[in-house]
Amino acid sequence: MAGDQQAPPDTPGAPGRLPPGQRLVPGWPVSHYGPVPRFRPERWNLRVFGATASGGVHEWTFEELTALPRTTVVADLHCATGPTSTGHEWYGVPATAVLDAVPPAPEVTHVMAWAEYGYSANLRLSDFVSAATLMATHHNGETLTAEHGFPLRLVVPHLFGYKGPKWLRGIEYMTADRRGFWEERGYHNVGEVRREQRYSYQEADADGTDG
Ligand SMILES: Nc1nc2c(c(=O)[nH]1)N[C@H]1C(S)=C(S)[C@@H](COP(=O)(O)O)O[C@H]1N2
Ligand SMILES: [Mo]
What is the C-alpha separation between 131 and 82, in angstroms, rounded? Predict the structure, then answer.
C-alpha cells in the first residue's frame, strides 16, 4: 500500500480539498458492521418495493441488472468518523435508472436502501436521484471485492459512507422518512459531508430533518 502517497492537488479529495473534519487515509480501508456475505447468484436479486406507482414489486436478477444503463463516477469516500479514502472510480447502474424502470408513486419522498443481513440506510429521494448516485458493480476497472460490497453497492458521493450500503439488495420507496441502521444508532439522519452532518445530536440544526 502506498502509505505516504499524496494525490495531486486537482484530484477530488486531495489534501487541500478534504472536507472539514476529515483526514486522508492511505489506501482503501474496509469498514462495516457484521460479517461479509457470500454471493449466491441463484438466490440473489435486487428488489424494488414499497410505494411504487404500479403498486407492484420489481425484482432483477444480477444478470438482468447488468442490462441496465451504466455510468462512471469518480468520488472520494468519507466515513462519518473522519477517515477519507480517495481515488475511487465507480462503475455501475445510475440510481435514476431504477426510478425510470420502476416509477415511484407521486407521494414518495424518501427511499430505504437495504443490504444483506438487514443493514439499511434512509435517503431523501433528492439524494437518491442525484446525478452522481449509482449502484456500483466495479471499482477502478475491476469487479468489487467481497469486503467492499460485491456484487452491488450503493454510492452516494455527497453523503457520508454509512449512507451507501455494501451488498445492496433492495430499494424501498417510502412516503415518509424512517431511520435506517446507523441513523437509529446515533448517526445523522441526512449525512451531508459538506455540512458535517455526522451525528443525530446535530439534527436540531439541520433544516427540518429532526428524526
Ligand atoms: N452493508 C453495509 N454497508 C456499509 C456499512 C455496513 O456496516 N454494512 N458501513 C458503511 C460505512 S459506515 C462506511 S464508512 C462504508 C465503508 O466502505 P469501505 O469498507 O468500502 O471503505 O461502508 C458503508 N456501507
Ligand atoms: Mo463509516
Answer: 25
- Asked if the structure places residue 36 within a domain, the reply is no
pLDDT-derived band of residue 204, with 50, 70 and 90 as boundaries? confident
**Predicted local distance difference test score (pLDDT) of residue 177:** 98
Domain assignment present for residue 14? The answer is no
Residue 189 lies in a domain: yes
Distance in angstroms (rounded) separating the CA atoms of residues 192 and 195 = 6
pTM for the predicted model, two decimal places: 0.91
Ligand 2 mean position to 80 CA, how many Å? 5
Bridging pattern class, strands 134-139 and 83-94: antiparallel
Domain range enclosing 147:
44-202
Interacting residues of 71 by C-beta distance below 8 A, sequence separation 6+: 91, 92, 93, 94, 134
Q: How far apart are the first and last CA of the chain?
A: 40
List ligand 1's pocket residues with C-beta within 6 A.
28-33, 77, 79, 115, 119, 148, 161-162, 164-167
Probe residue for ligand 1, chosen from 119, 166, 184, 199 as the CB with the greatest number of ligand atoms within 8 Å: 166
Q: For residue 28, what is its C-alpha cell? A: 482503501
Query: Which residue, 107, 80, 97, 105, is CA-closest to 164?
Result: 80
